[in-house]
Amino acid sequence: MDVPELHPDLEPIAFLLGRWEGAGVGGYPTIESFNFGQEIVFGHNGKPFLTYTSRTWLLNDAGERVRELATETGYWRQLPGRQLEVCLTHPTGIVEIYVGEVVFHKIELRTDVVARTATAKEYTAGHRLYGLVNGNLMWAYDMGAVGQPIQSHISAELKKVADFVPDAG
Ligand code: HEM
């Protein structure tokens, strides 16, 4: 199959496309802080959304992968203009719908709806910032969970390692 043309509505978030690799730090009042490695893939198939997957690994002090941590997958739906809708699924029994906007190379998203399975941990709200800084993708994530007010859980910086990915497999 030919490489699909990018849907024109996706132009504002086209800078996300590709495979990104990097590392970050995580923490929360209820857990020990940790270092992690991350891979994010944004792809497209010609329709007005990006496919998205993120995988993470716990890193030891030497920067080696110890074990898998969080993964999430979903779709970033660009509306005409600056508005975005993002649907994400987590293997921890959580599904989130974010709404937000892109302004130049900065994206801000807030949860509109969160749903949890009966056995998922208590999680109520998420706030994400993504930005392109000197060609790197920086992102920061605040959450409200396990009785705590919304506050920082994750921040990371990733470098682009591949430009085009047909979809986020
Ligand atoms: C890069 C992304 C993320 C990484 C690397 C990460 C990593 C971790 C780690 C290592 C823990 C502590 C141990 C554990 O419970 O496994 C944790 C706890 C937790 N995370 Fe994340 N997480 C990420 C994203 C998220 C997201 C997107 C959510 C919500 C949708 C979330 C919700 C939680 C909750 C509810 C806890 C439990 C806190 C507690 O029980 O005290 N995390 N995370």
TrEMBL record:
<dbReference type="InterPro" id="IPR014878">
    <property type="entry name" value="THAP4-like_heme-bd"/>
</dbReference>
<feature type="domain" description="THAP4-like heme-binding">
    <location>
        <begin position="9"/>
        <end position="160"/>
    </location>
</feature>
<dbReference type="Pfam" id="PF08768">
    <property type="entry name" value="THAP4_heme-bd"/>
</dbReference>
<dbReference type="InterPro" id="IPR012674">
    <property type="entry name" value="Calycin"/>
</dbReference>
<keyword id="KW-0349">Heme</keyword>
<protein>
    <recommendedName>
        <fullName>Peroxynitrite isomerase</fullName>
        <ecNumber>5.99.-.-</ecNumber>
    </recommendedName>
</protein>
<feature type="short sequence motif" description="GXWXGXG">
    <location>
        <begin position="18"/>
        <end position="24"/>
    </location>
</feature>
<keyword id="KW-0413">Isomerase</keyword>
<comment type="pathway">
    <text>Nitrogen metabolism.</text>
</comment>
<keyword id="KW-0408">Iron</keyword>
<dbReference type="InterPro" id="IPR022939">
    <property type="entry name" value="Nb(III)_bact/plant"/>
</dbReference>
<feature type="binding site" description="axial binding residue">
    <location>
        <position position="153"/>
    </location>
    <ligand>
        <name>heme b</name>
    </ligand>
</feature>
<feature type="binding site">
    <location>
        <position position="30"/>
    </location>
    <ligand>
        <name>heme b</name>
    </ligand>
</feature>
<comment type="function">
    <text>Heme-binding protein able to scavenge peroxynitrite and to protect free L-tyrosine against peroxynitrite-mediated nitration, by acting as a peroxynitrite isomerase that converts peroxynitrite to nitrate. Therefore, this protein likely plays a role in peroxynitrite sensing and in the detoxification of reactive nitrogen and oxygen species (RNS and ROS, respectively). Is able to bind nitric oxide (NO) in vitro, but may act as a sensor of peroxynitrite levels in vivo.</text>
</comment>
<feature type="binding site">
    <location>
        <position position="121"/>
    </location>
    <ligand>
        <name>heme b</name>
    </ligand>
</feature>
<keyword id="KW-0479">Metal-binding</keyword>
<comment type="similarity">
    <text>Belongs to the nitrobindin family.</text>
</comment>
<dbReference type="InterPro" id="IPR045165">
    <property type="entry name" value="Nitrobindin"/>
</dbReference>
